[in-house]
Amino acid sequence: VLITPETRQLPDLALRCGPDAIDRVFHWQGDSRLFLAIIKSYEDLFNAERDCLDDQVRVIILVEDSPHFYSAYLPLIYTEILAQTRALIAEGLSDDEKLNRMSTRPKILLAGTYEEAEALYMKYRANVLGVISDIRYPRDGKLDGQAGFAFTSLVKNDNPDVPVLLQSHDTAFADQAAAM
Fold it and tell me: What is the pTM of this model?
Protein backbone atom coordinates (compact mmCIF):
# COMPACT_ATOMS: atom_id res chain seq x y z
CA VAL A 1 0.00 0.00 0.00
CA LEU A 2 1.20 3.48 -0.83
CA ILE A 3 -0.17 6.51 1.02
CA THR A 4 0.70 9.78 -0.65
CA PRO A 5 -0.47 13.39 -0.52
CA GLU A 6 0.62 13.82 -4.15
CA THR A 7 -0.61 11.60 -6.97
CA ARG A 8 0.91 13.39 -9.97
CA GLN A 9 4.12 11.37 -9.72
CA LEU A 10 2.44 7.96 -9.58
CA PRO A 11 2.96 7.09 -13.27
CA ASP A 12 6.73 7.65 -12.87
CA LEU A 13 6.74 5.58 -9.69
CA ALA A 14 4.90 2.73 -11.41
CA LEU A 15 7.48 2.71 -14.19
CA ARG A 16 10.39 2.60 -11.73
CA CYS A 17 8.91 0.02 -9.34
CA GLY A 18 6.96 -2.12 -11.77
CA PRO A 19 3.21 -2.57 -12.06
CA ASP A 20 2.96 -5.18 -9.28
CA ALA A 21 5.02 -3.36 -6.64
CA ILE A 22 2.06 -1.52 -5.13
CA ASP A 23 -1.33 -3.16 -4.57
CA ARG A 24 -3.30 0.04 -4.00
CA VAL A 25 -2.57 3.76 -3.69
CA PHE A 26 -4.35 5.87 -1.08
CA HIS A 27 -4.50 9.65 -1.19
CA TRP A 28 -3.62 11.29 2.13
CA GLN A 29 -5.99 14.17 2.84
CA GLY A 30 -5.17 14.62 6.53
CA ASP A 31 -7.88 12.31 7.90
CA SER A 32 -6.29 9.82 10.31
CA ARG A 33 -9.32 7.53 9.90
CA LEU A 34 -7.74 6.56 6.57
CA PHE A 35 -5.30 4.27 8.42
CA LEU A 36 -8.14 2.33 10.06
CA ALA A 37 -9.99 2.18 6.73
CA ILE A 38 -6.95 0.72 4.97
CA ILE A 39 -6.52 -1.93 7.66
CA LYS A 40 -10.24 -2.77 7.69
CA SER A 41 -10.32 -2.86 3.89
CA TYR A 42 -7.54 -5.45 3.73
CA GLU A 43 -9.02 -7.42 6.64
CA ASP A 44 -12.33 -7.51 4.78
CA LEU A 45 -10.66 -8.61 1.56
CA PHE A 46 -8.77 -11.43 3.27
CA ASN A 47 -11.64 -12.56 5.55
CA ALA A 48 -14.63 -12.10 3.25
CA GLU A 49 -14.64 -15.57 1.78
CA ARG A 50 -14.60 -17.32 5.14
CA ASP A 51 -16.96 -14.86 6.85
CA CYS A 52 -19.47 -14.62 4.02
CA LEU A 53 -19.63 -18.23 2.99
CA ASP A 54 -19.47 -19.72 6.50
CA ASP A 55 -21.16 -17.08 8.67
CA GLN A 56 -23.43 -15.42 6.09
CA VAL A 57 -21.87 -12.00 6.66
CA ARG A 58 -23.07 -9.37 4.17
CA VAL A 59 -20.90 -7.31 1.79
CA ILE A 60 -21.06 -3.86 0.27
CA ILE A 61 -19.20 -3.56 -3.02
CA LEU A 62 -17.57 -0.17 -3.62
CA VAL A 63 -16.48 0.35 -7.22
CA GLU A 64 -14.14 3.31 -7.57
CA ASP A 65 -10.84 3.67 -9.41
CA SER A 66 -9.78 7.10 -8.13
CA PRO A 67 -7.49 7.09 -5.07
CA HIS A 68 -8.81 10.57 -4.21
CA PHE A 69 -12.38 9.33 -3.96
CA TYR A 70 -11.99 5.88 -2.39
CA SER A 71 -9.57 7.39 0.13
CA ALA A 72 -12.36 9.77 1.15
CA TYR A 73 -15.23 7.24 0.97
CA LEU A 74 -13.71 4.35 2.88
CA PRO A 75 -13.12 6.24 6.16
CA LEU A 76 -16.68 7.58 6.03
CA ILE A 77 -18.23 4.21 5.26
CA TYR A 78 -16.22 2.34 7.90
CA THR A 79 -16.94 4.97 10.54
CA GLU A 80 -20.67 4.67 9.88
CA ILE A 81 -20.70 0.84 9.67
CA LEU A 82 -18.72 0.51 12.91
CA ALA A 83 -20.95 3.04 14.71
CA GLN A 84 -24.11 1.23 13.60
CA THR A 85 -22.67 -2.15 14.54
CA ARG A 86 -21.69 -0.88 18.00
CA ALA A 87 -25.20 0.53 18.47
CA LEU A 88 -26.68 -2.92 17.75
CA ILE A 89 -24.51 -4.70 20.31
CA ALA A 90 -26.37 -5.21 23.56
CA GLU A 91 -24.68 -4.05 26.74
CA GLY A 92 -25.32 -7.35 28.52
CA LEU A 93 -23.06 -9.36 26.23
CA SER A 94 -19.68 -10.72 27.25
CA ASP A 95 -16.53 -9.28 25.67
CA ASP A 96 -16.19 -12.39 23.46
CA GLU A 97 -19.78 -12.08 22.27
CA LYS A 98 -19.27 -8.38 21.51
CA LEU A 99 -16.11 -9.16 19.55
CA ASN A 100 -17.95 -11.85 17.60
CA ARG A 101 -20.78 -9.45 16.74
CA MET A 102 -18.27 -6.80 15.59
CA SER A 103 -16.69 -9.35 13.25
CA THR A 104 -20.06 -9.99 11.63
CA ARG A 105 -20.43 -6.39 10.47
CA PRO A 106 -20.82 -5.97 6.70
CA LYS A 107 -17.58 -6.25 4.77
CA ILE A 108 -16.64 -3.44 2.38
CA LEU A 109 -15.02 -4.82 -0.77
CA LEU A 110 -13.25 -2.31 -3.03
CA ALA A 111 -13.01 -2.86 -6.77
CA GLY A 112 -11.17 -0.56 -9.16
CA THR A 113 -12.29 -2.06 -12.47
CA TYR A 114 -15.41 -3.57 -13.98
CA GLU A 115 -13.79 -6.99 -13.99
CA GLU A 116 -12.91 -6.78 -10.28
CA ALA A 117 -16.44 -5.65 -9.45
CA GLU A 118 -17.99 -8.42 -11.53
CA ALA A 119 -15.77 -11.07 -9.90
CA LEU A 120 -16.68 -9.81 -6.40
CA TYR A 121 -20.36 -9.72 -7.24
CA MET A 122 -20.38 -13.22 -8.73
CA LYS A 123 -18.48 -14.64 -5.77
CA TYR A 124 -20.59 -12.97 -3.07
CA ARG A 125 -23.90 -12.41 -4.89
CA ALA A 126 -25.92 -14.15 -2.16
CA ASN A 127 -24.34 -11.86 0.45
CA VAL A 128 -24.46 -8.49 -1.32
CA LEU A 129 -26.12 -5.91 0.90
CA GLY A 130 -25.62 -3.12 -1.63
CA VAL A 131 -23.39 -1.57 -4.27
CA ILE A 132 -21.84 1.90 -4.42
CA SER A 133 -20.42 2.52 -7.87
CA ASP A 134 -18.77 5.25 -9.82
CA ILE A 135 -19.92 5.46 -13.42
CA ARG A 136 -16.64 5.89 -15.29
CA TYR A 137 -13.87 3.37 -14.57
CA PRO A 138 -11.70 0.84 -16.43
CA ARG A 139 -13.35 -1.98 -18.35
CA ASP A 140 -11.48 -4.27 -20.72
CA GLY A 141 -8.26 -2.37 -20.01
CA LYS A 142 -9.49 1.10 -20.91
CA LEU A 143 -11.55 3.84 -19.27
CA ASP A 144 -15.25 3.23 -19.98
CA GLY A 145 -17.76 6.04 -19.42
CA GLN A 146 -20.59 3.50 -19.13
CA ALA A 147 -18.93 0.84 -16.91
CA GLY A 148 -21.02 1.75 -13.86
CA PHE A 149 -24.23 1.45 -15.84
CA ALA A 150 -23.14 -1.90 -17.26
CA PHE A 151 -22.29 -3.18 -13.77
CA THR A 152 -25.59 -1.90 -12.40
CA SER A 153 -27.44 -3.75 -15.18
CA LEU A 154 -25.57 -6.94 -14.32
CA VAL A 155 -26.51 -6.63 -10.65
CA LYS A 156 -30.12 -5.58 -11.24
CA ASN A 157 -30.72 -8.30 -13.85
CA ASP A 158 -29.45 -10.88 -11.36
CA ASN A 159 -31.20 -9.45 -8.29
CA PRO A 160 -33.46 -6.40 -8.69
CA ASP A 161 -33.70 -6.00 -4.90
CA VAL A 162 -30.02 -5.13 -4.40
CA PRO A 163 -29.76 -1.38 -3.75
CA VAL A 164 -27.28 0.40 -5.99
CA LEU A 165 -25.97 3.91 -5.44
CA LEU A 166 -24.45 5.38 -8.59
CA GLN A 167 -22.24 8.38 -7.94
CA SER A 168 -20.23 10.64 -10.18
CA HIS A 169 -18.86 14.15 -10.18
CA ASP A 170 -20.28 14.48 -13.72
CA THR A 171 -23.92 15.60 -13.49
CA ALA A 172 -24.51 14.64 -17.14
CA PHE A 173 -25.15 11.08 -15.93
CA ALA A 174 -27.97 12.05 -13.52
CA ASP A 175 -30.92 11.25 -15.80
CA GLN A 176 -29.51 7.91 -16.93
CA ALA A 177 -28.67 6.97 -13.31
CA ALA A 178 -32.17 7.93 -12.11
CA ALA A 179 -33.72 5.83 -14.89
CA MET A 180 -31.78 2.77 -13.75
Answer: 0.88
